Each structure stands twice: as structure tokens, then as C-alpha cells.
């Protein structure tokens, strides 16, 4: 069997064809349900509990969809985290600029367009950056299930912590 390497034949043994590299199972166990979930970005938080059971069962059975859901939630959390950090950075920049008086009127850009002087100060640039960061944060919070996901994670951690403290209290009492 030739492999296209300059016309020289290349022998391929039977073990090469069954290696995990050639026979990976990257498919969903139920393609119809997998297609529905992929169109929803693997988010089932907004559907009724009666419908949610079938999809949760599918996530339990299908490693492919479970990994895709994990990837999408990771992206959502990174987006909300990045926009939060950006907003906090601009609030900090505005606080520093407000505290240091000479920086308030320091011109970042001085343009003369159509005989009208346009001056963009550092303080105005930081305020615009804060506004844009906040708008991006709101858009990410609306478009992704990150707030719902993070609330669920926090509630689960609180339940674990609360259960642990009750167990510790019970062991001390006994």
C-alpha cells in the first residue's frame, strides 16, 4: 500500500489502523439530541424540569456532549471573568486619575478636525473604557448562562460547606 511519500511504497501493519489516533469515537450517542443541545450551546438551564430530565440523562450517557458542555461553560466563565476584571481595572484607573489632580486634564489625543479642537483626556478615556467594559459585561451576562452556572456552583459549594460544618458540629456534640 502506498502512502503518497514520493511514490515509495510504505507498509502499514494492521495495528496502525486500529490505533486510537485513527479510530477515535468523537461522536454523540444520540445525534438528534446532540444536535439540539449544540444549537442551545449545551445549556439546559432555561427549559422546564420535565424536559430537563431527558437531557440530563443524555449528558450522563454521552461523554462527547458532556465535554462540549464543559468547554462552553468554561468559555462563558472566562468571558464574564475577563469583562469583570476589565471593569474593575477601569474603576481603579478612574480612582487613581481622580486622586492625582495633574492627570485629570492630561491630554491623551489632541486632534484638530474641521477647525474644531478635540481633546481626549486620560480621565475621559478611562470613563469611556469603563462604560464599554460595563456594556460588554452586561451583554455577556445576558447572552451566556454564566451567572446561572456560577450561582449553581456557589450553591453546591455552600451546601458542601454547610454539610461539613453540620457534621463537625455533630461530632463535637457526641
Please, could you describe this protein's structure?
Helices cover about 65% and strands about 10% of the residues. It is mainly alpha-helical. The protein has one domain (about 1-174). A hairpin with a 2-residue loop joins strand 1 (about 1-5) and strand 2 (about 10).
The low-confidence runs, each spanning 5 or more residues with pLDDT under 50, are 16-24
| CA-based gyration radius | 27 Å
- The percent range for helix content is 55-70%
| Overall 3D shape | elongated
Q: How many strands in all?
A: 4
How many domains is the backbone divided into?
Answer: 1
Which structural category do the helix and sheet elements fall into?
Answer: mainly alpha
Distance between the termini: 75 Å
H/E series: EEHHHHEEHH
Quickly count the helices. 6
Largest sheet: 2 strands, antiparallel
